[in-house]
Specification:
Blueprint: H1 2-27, E1 53-60, H2 65-76, E2 81-86, E3 91-96, H3 102-112, E4 115-122
Antiparallel strand pairs: 1-3, 1-4, 2-3
Helix pairs in contact: 2-3
This protein binds dioxo(di-mu-sulfide)dimolybdenum (9UX).
């Protein structure tokens, strides 16, 4: 009799696990469920030659595509900025028409909820 109860218990735990796993798959991550994904604000000027300054930001905390869009949107809101973030590499390439203080870029990322832990200035090699 005891074995039957244990078996049922294990079964219940297994079902519970599968259920929550499915939920995770369908709802994405961090509460952005129901297809409520973050929209990307496209930058109009996408000509690299218009952006002489380039900075790579290494960003902590991006775990899904929505995070990437949030970071990009925050940076692209700054004047003369074209930013593209990369989820896999955890970094963002920030192209600028004029020099923008690093602190300002960091602040933009920070207010979106992520942290810049390293930054590299890239010389224009054109
Ligand atoms: Mo996802 Mo990022 O739905 O903070 S937006 S992990």
């Amino acid at each position: 009799m005891a074995t039957v109860i244990i078996c049922i218990l294990i079964l219940l735990i297994a079902i519970f696990g599968i259920k929550s796993y499915c939920k995770k798959l369908s709802s994405g991550c961090c509460g952005a469920s129901g297809g409520k994904s973050v929209k990307k604000n496209k930058v109009k000027d996408r000509d690299p030659s218009h952006y002489p300054v380039k900075q790579i930001l290494y960003i902590d905390g991006m775990t899904c595509g929505n995070c990437v869009n949030r970071v990009e949107n925050a940076l692209n809101e700054l004047e003369g900025v074209w930013a593209t973030a990369d989820l896999m590499e955890g970094k963002a390439v920030v192209r600028m028409k004029q020099d923008i203080p690093l602190e300002e870029l960091k602040q933009a990322v920070k207010s979106a909820g992520y942290l810049v832990y390293k930054s590299v200035v890239e010389k224009n090699s054109q």
